[in-house]
UniProtKB/TrEMBL annotation:
The keyword Oxidoreductase applies. Has an important function as a repair enzyme for proteins that have been inactivated by oxidation. Catalyzes the reversible oxidation-reduction of methionine sulfoxide in proteins to methionine. The gene is msrA. It is an enzyme of class 1 (oxidoreductase). It comes from the Bacteria. This is Peptide methionine sulfoxide reductase MsrA. It comes from Microvirga ossetica.
Length: 248
């Protein structure tokens, strides 16, 4: 427990430092800062996937995506109707390096990722991807999201099966052909990668810390964008990972 607390304090210290630098730039030179990449960019309306996964006779499916700091991505999907759980974690590397203090180096192959469990009778994999690309992150930022820089903050989709891989590949091609974004989509497809749950102090961070400066600036706007762009799928009460783990 002492080590976990120490990890948490170091993590918060580093992120506070990044936020402080970013906000100081914003205040000192608003015109310059406005042109810099930000996790808080306004979400955009994008077309739904033409190709989607077939409905399966199962109660739960899972999707794994990475789009910068997992606090915001997890927070977005916790507010999506049909999602039964959203867990922050790591994907892309090995089990022995799936720890925050190690992945922070950017050399483990891991990305901060979110495992989304959902009811396929209420929401499809394609719709999960549409929300991911529209409001959860900016898929045109290479190895960064807003103030967070490094391969651990890359944009990636980790397909769980061949159907998901086909849908994700086709959707990226669809959005690219439609020139949905001003810049090229750099989202990577990384199949056959294991997901590892992150430390408990990372779970439900957006909900538990709504006044934390990083959350206020980078992540709460994503929730508002979800509400605006997907009103029929928005749920006010989030499904929380820590509560779900205690009931399973």
């Amino acid at each position: 427990m002492k080590q976990a607390g120490s990890d948490k304090e170091r993590h918060h210290s580093r992120r506070r430092a990044r936020v402080a630098v970013f906000l100081s730039i914003l205040l000192a030179a608003a015109g310059v800062a406005a042109s810099q990449p930000s996790s808080a960019q306004e979400g955009i309306a994008i077309p739904a996937p033409v190709l989607d996964t077939p409905v399966r006779p199962v109660a739960t499916e899972t999707a794994v995506v990475a789009g910068g700091c997992f606090w915001g991505v997890q927070g977005v999907f916790q507010h999506v109707t049909g999602v039964t759980n959203a867990v922050s974690g790591y994907a892309g590397g090995e089990k022995q390096t799936a720890h925050y203090e190690m992945i922070g180096s950017g050399t483990t192959g891991h990305a901060e990722a979110v495992e989304i469990s959902y009811d396929p009778s209420r929401i499809s994999y394609g719709k999960i991807l549409q929300i991911f690309f529209a409001v959860a992150h900016d898929p045109t930022q290479l190895n960064r999201q807003g103030p967070d820089v490094g391969t651990q903050y890359r944009t990636a989709v980790f397909p769980r099966n061949q159907d998901q891989a086909a849908v994700a590949k086709a959707y990226i091609a669809q959005l690219t052909q439609a020139r949905t974004y001003k810049a090229a989509i750099v989202t990577r497809l990384e199949p056959d990668r294991q997901f590892y749950r992150a430390e408990d102090y990372h779970q439900d961070f957006l909900t538990l810390n709504p006044t934390y400066p990083y959350i206020v600036y980078n992540d709460l706007p994503k929730i508002e964008n979800l509400k605006r762009l997907f009103p029929d799928l928005y749920r006010e009460r989030p499904v929380l990972a820590l509560q779900t783990s205690r009931t399973n």
